[in-house]
Design goal:
The chain is about 35% helix and about 10% strand. The protein is α+β, with helices and mostly antiparallel strands. A five-stranded antiparallel beta sheet has the order 1-2-3-4-5, with no helix packed on it. Helix 1 packs antiparallel against helix 2. The radius of gyration is 20 Å and the shape is elongated.
Length: about 120
């Protein structure tokens, strides 16, 4: 067994994440171990493992890896669900991003500055 697998299992057990009375009845510990085994099985160095984990974290949290663009195919018109407030579009690649001008500019409800208006990249 790799050091990473041993370490992960020890820490997860110590935290009680395999216990039936833990969150999701021990499934969190099992799920983390599935991910750890997959990562350990790829033979990453420390640097490539860090890069892999950073990218995985972004896509697993529904984040875009490249800039949001104003391409209409990247935006869903959700105006009907938004009520009478006017036009509203939601980004397909990062659902926390909304626009009132079809994607030319947008704001991210998960950003530190929720009021910041961002200009979309040109569609490519």
């Amino acid at each position: 067994m790799s050091n990473l697998i041993d370490h992960a299992e020890f820490e997860l057990r110590r935290a009680g994440l395999f216990d039936k009375d833990s969150d999701y009845h021990g499934m969190i510990g099992e799920s983390v171990m599935t991910l750890v085994r997959a990562l350990a099985g790829k033979g990453h160095s420390g640097h490539s493992a860090d890069m892999t984990l950073a990218i995985f974290n972004e896509v697993a949290n529904y984040k875009a890896l490249t800039p949001i663009t104003s391409n209409p195919s990247e935006w869903n018109d959700v105006s009907a669900m938004s009520g009478p407030s006017g036009p509203n579009w939601q980004n397909k690649r990062q659902s926390s991003c909304f626009s009132d001008d079809g994607g030319k500019t947008y704001y991210d409800i998960c950003a530190d500055d929720k009021d910041a208006i961002i200009t979309s990249a040109d569609p490519t």
